[in-house]
Design brief:
Blueprint lengths: L4 E2 L8 H20 L12 E2 L3 H13 L4 H14 L17 H13 L7 H12 L8 H9 L31 H16 L33 H19 L6 H13 L13 H13 L7 H12 L21 H14 L7 H12 L33 H14 L5 H13 L36 H13 L7 H12 L15 H14 L7 H12 L27 H13 L6 H12 L2 E2 L2 E2 L6 E4 L3 E5 L2 H18 L10
Antiparallel strand pairs: 1-3, 2-6, 3-4, 5-6
Length: 660
């Protein structure tokens, strides 16, 4: 649906006009948001990452020699559009700094597509890569991709014996101690590491020119990336495993059993055409593992694994106003639908509106009630009751989505959705970790020493409890009636208090960054009935107010995940401004001039239909490694904040009554 660009410009300093304009903007955006609803009731937006995912998609096609010329041409166009005009390489997020691994992958993907090394954009990229130490400085996942194409020797990656799949749960390093995303990526990767296949590479593309030292001449590839004693210990283990992996393990009887164990892990989790773990890297590794094992492309498992990769490609470019297609890292329909519905309610759409009911009915039907996923390893007696992030991912429901959906269903109709809410609340309580917090997918997934192994140079092998997820769980439980004195809530509050930064903010694990974490925490603190005048709460409020920018908005850069870059911001964004406003309103500051200035910023900001203009990435997959741009964030969060602001300003009570 095409629409005009709406730019509302309220008169400065006139509160009644600002309130009415905020309400009008929220209402108008809500109507455009509803126009995006699918026939079955759900809403889904694109989910964009960086250059690595389209590069890996191209790698798969050339590994298999199953090329898609038209689509690959569009992906090449997309990759070129992401190249930085400033440093010549590829960043991890919009206008971000140079990233060696993303740049190496994008450069080699373009070589596979036929881009000449002498083309101006390739020369700029090559110069940038060489200036940063060459492709040999790329991370482990990048070097695995290069090894599959023979661009680095297999000793250029850490040993990852497939025998890991045989390790019992009591063993210090076993598959169940890793995060769900690591588990699903590693299982097929261990097969590739064991069999060391060579990509078909039909065009014979190489990338030796982006190495400072010829790959075969490099003696030391793997480093102690943490500098810790554990890191040194695991580095020495890797030095022992490397020759064993080459000369001993392939001859042992355990190898076939270990490969079978990996396949037995993958098979029940294939997840139809939604894919293993419903995340692209796991799907891609599975396809290549099946091919390496000699599985025919006509085999049902091979076909469904490949189809899951293909399914992540965005809609055709004519549907997307001429934009080239690209593969998403995953899709976000549960998250988008539930958050969009919350925004609609705040923007004035009644709970009884049949379109809202259809959204809730669709969500209720997606609750996972009959599959005990990997989470049950640590909670075998807990009954299922969660929601996944994607369309289907029954083995991996996540706590964050479950809490957000639960709050929505309770708000819309606590009677109609009573059983859904009860099952969700019991599951969320059962997923609480020992320290009182909640991880996204697992309980007590915090064996930090594992992040020191050479394979884990990305530092994201685990899923420890985080404030933003814990806050959503507390908000949900409080909203549906659990009292402040309930043990889970008491432990959760103590966890949040213990994680507060010295300046009053909270770290945002899944959204950028301290604004996201602080918004989440303040919502939970309000929901559980804490006294919002306590010094520790006021410190958080003061911090949020201090971060407001001159234009009235809030913004925070992806670079803030590096401690030395804390406080960095390039621009205000509508979604981050909305989080700050919502956090301040939860803390009782509805009438504070900072909230009014935030509302003014959002109403002044350019908007087309449901979406405010926001090219910035305001979320993360893994801090410092993998960033995300949720295209829906610039639609539902600004409408949510403006709608709530107008409603509270017009009402007698200024207290936020919901968990979010």
């Amino acid at each position: 649906m095409q629409s005009n660009v709406y730019v509302l410009r309220p008169k400065l300093g006139v509160a009644p006009t600002l309130v009415s304009d905020a309400a009008a903007a929220a209402s108008d955006a809500a109507q455009h948001l509803l126009a995006l609803q699918k026939a079955d009731g759900h809403i889904v937006f694109e989910l964009e990452a960086d250059a690595t995912i389209p590069s890996e998609y191209i790698f798969i096609n050339h590994f298999l020699d199953m090329r898609e010329p038209e689509l690959e041409a569009e992906m090449g166009e997309y990759l070129r559009s992401l190249q930085s005009k400033t440093h010549g390489g590829w960043p991890l997020f919009h206008e971000g700094g140079f990233n060696i691994s993303a740049s190496v992958k994008a450069y080699y993907a373009l070589k596979l597509l036929g881009d000449s090394a002498d083309a101006p954009h390739m020369v700029r990229a090559r110069n940038a890569i060489l200036a940063h130490g060459g492709a040999e400085k790329s991370n482990v996942f990048c070097r695995y991709s290069l090894a599959l194409f023979g661009q680095v020797p297999w000793r250029g990656v850490p040993a990852m014996p497939v025998e890991l799949m045989l390790m019992p749960k009591w063993f210090p390093a076993n598959i169940w101690k890793f995060a769900y995303w690591s588990r699903t990526v590693i299982a097929p990767l261990t097969i590739l590491a064991a069999l060391k296949p060579m990509a078909r590479n039909p065009v014979g593309a190489t990338c030796r020119e982006i190495f400072c030292t010829p790959p075969e001449a490099i003696k030391v590839w793997n480093q102690n990336h943490t500098g810790s004693r554990w890191g040194e210990f695991f580095l020495q283990i890797d030095k022992l495993l490397q020759p064993a992996e080459k000369h001993i393990f392939p001859r042992l009887p355990f190898r076939k059993a270990a490969i079978k164990k990996a396949l037995d892990f993958i098979k029940p989790r294939l997840n139809g055409d939604d894919g293993l773990g419903a995340i692209f890297p796991a799907m891609a590794n599975t396809v290549m593992a099946y091919d390496t094992l000699g599985m025919s492309p006509d085999h049902p498992d091979f076909k469904i694994a490949l189809a899951s990769c293909r399914k992540l490609v965005t809609e055709r470019r004519e549907v997307r106003n001429g934009a080239p297609r690209y593969p998403q890292p995953c899709v976000s329909p549960i998250w988008d639908t539930s958050l969009a519905a919350h925004a609609l309610l705040e923007a004035g759409v009644p709970e009884t509106d049949e379109r809202v009911i259809r959204m809730c009915d669709w969500l209720a039907a997606e609750q996972i009630l009959d599959v005990k996923g990997d989470w049950a390893v640590n909670a075998p007696d807990l009954e299922p009751g969660g929601w996944a992030f994607q369309y289907k991912n029954d083995y991996y429901p996540d706590v964050d989505d479950t809490a957000v959906v639960g709050m929505l269903l309770h708000r819309v109709d606590p009677v109609r959705y009573k059983l859904n809410i009860e099952r969700a609340a019991k599951w969320v309580i059962g997923m609480q970790s020992t320290n009182g917090g909640w991880g996204a997918f697992d309980i007590d997934n915090n064996a930090e020493f594992l992040n020191t192994i050479p394979f884990a140079d990305h530092g994201a092998l685990l899923d420890p409890p985080t404030v933003d997820v814990a806050a959503r769980c507390l908000s949900f439980l409080a909203q549906v009636g659990y009292e402040r004195e309930h043990p889970s809530i008491q432990r959760g509050i103590e966890f949040i208090k213990s994680e507060q930064e010295t300046d009053g903010s909270w770290f945002g694990r899944w959204g950028t960054n301290y604004i996201y974490g602080t918004w989440s925490a303040l919502n939970a603190i309000n929901a559980v009935g804490e006294d919002m005048s306590q010094p520790w709460v006021r410190k958080a409020v003061d911090w949020l107010i201090s971060q407001q920018r001159d234009d009235g908005g809030w913004g925070e850069d992806g670079g803030t995940y590096w401690k030395q870059r804390r406080g960095e911001a390039k621009a205000s964004t509508p979604s981050q401004t909305a989080w700050a406003m919502l956090g301040l309103m939860a803390a009782g500051e509805v009438e504070h001039h900072s909230v009014a200035r935030g509302a003014q910023y959002i109403t002044n900001a350019p908007r087309e239909g449901a979406k405010w203009d926001e090219p910035w990435y305001t979320a993360v997959g893994f801090p410092r490694v993998f960033y995300l741009r949720y295209h829906g964030y610039s639609a539902y969060f600004p409408a949510w904040a403006l709608g709530r602001y107008a409603k509270l300003m017009r009402g007698n009570s200024k207290k936020v009554q919901w968990g979010m």
